[in-house]
Amino acid sequence: MKRTLITGITGQDGAYLAAFLLEKGYQVFGTYRRVSTPNFWRLQSLNVLDKVTLIPVDMADMSSLLEAVTLSAPHEIYNLAAQSYVGASFDQPLLTTEIDGSGATRILEIIRHLKKDIKFYQASTSELYGTLKESPQSETTPFWPNSPYAVAKMLSFHNTRIYREAYGIFACNGILFNHESPLRGMEFVTRKISNAVARIKLGLQEKLVLGNLDTKRDWGYAPEYVEAMWMILQYDKPHDFVVATGEAHSVKEFLDEAFEQVNLDPSDFVKTDSLFMRPKDVDLLCGDSSKIKNEIGWKPKTSFRELVKIMVDADLTRWTDYLDGKQFPWDAPNYPDDIKLQKRHVTKQ
Question: Which residue among 57, 99, 109, 184 is the one 20 to 30 A from 265 at the CA level?
Answer without folding.
Answer: 184
